[in-house]
Design goal:
This protein is 36% helix and 20% strand. It has three helices and eight strands, in the order αααββββββββ.
Length: 216
């Protein structure tokens, strides 16, 4: 049987977009093993076998931390939703009670602190946190595109960003806008985190959950 001809035009197939985190870590470890087993074939690699193994271990550890955080978040969200259902039931029962004892007297209803149906809504507190924040990479250097929903009573939004979201002092205001789909510019390149707060007649509300993207 003839030996297959050696080809000098073969190309490496990496296919990173199709690999899971675990598969990427396994590939890094396999590559490190191959470097160590064949030093003559792979002299002075730009990423050493030791660095590959360290990177693989770090990736798996971060994946576990992220998974644990997602599970904890799901539990906390479920508990919040249950508490909100209880609050809704309490408010509904209380509103029925006020309606009953007021006998339709607007003055009595007002004294209960509840709104009167059909009357203009008076915001008693700042707007809630904007929801569903997403951040995507912009087309130009220093750009990112944001999108979020508008809470009731919002007049303006404040946009902040940081490269270290766990450091509260690192968040910097970069934009004040009335838009819910702003394009932010002049942002430092690399992975950046963004958060939004809505302001109304009663002041600024809480910050949204942060969202992240790679800024070119």
């Amino acid at each position: 049987m003839a030996k297959p001809k050696k080809s000098s035009s073969a190309r490496v197939a990496l296919k990173l977009s199709k690999l899971t985190v675990a598969q990427k870590a396994a590939q890094m470890s396999s590559l490190a093993d191959a470097y160590d087993a064949n030093p003559a074939l792979f002299p002075s690699p730009p990423v050493t076998s030791a660095a590959l193994r360290t990177g693989a271990a770090s990736l798996l550890a971060k994946e576990k931390s992220a998974k644990d955080a997602r599970q904890a978040s799901m539990v906390a969200t479920s508990e919040r939703d249950d508490a909100e259902l209880v609050a809704d039931a309490s408010l509904t029962q209380s509103a029925d009670f006020v309606q009953l004892v007021s006998k339709g007297d607007a003055t009595v209803i007002t004294k209960s602190s509840l709104e009167i149906k059909g009357a203009p809504v008076r915001m008693k507190s700042p707007p809630g946190a904007p929801q569903n924040l997403s951040a995507t990479t912009g087309a130009k250097l220093g750009e990112a595109k944001l999108k979020y929903t508008k809470p009731a009573g919002t007049q303006t939004f404040t946009v902040q960003c940081t490269a270290t979201p766990t450091d509260e002092t690192s968040w910097k205001t970069i934009l004040s806008t009335q838009k819910t789909t702003p394009l932010v510019t002049g942002v430092a390149s690399g992975r950046m985190w963004f958060r939004i707060a809505a302001s109304g007649a009663q002041g600024q509300g809480p910050w949204s959950d942060p969202a992240t993207c790679i800024v070119p």
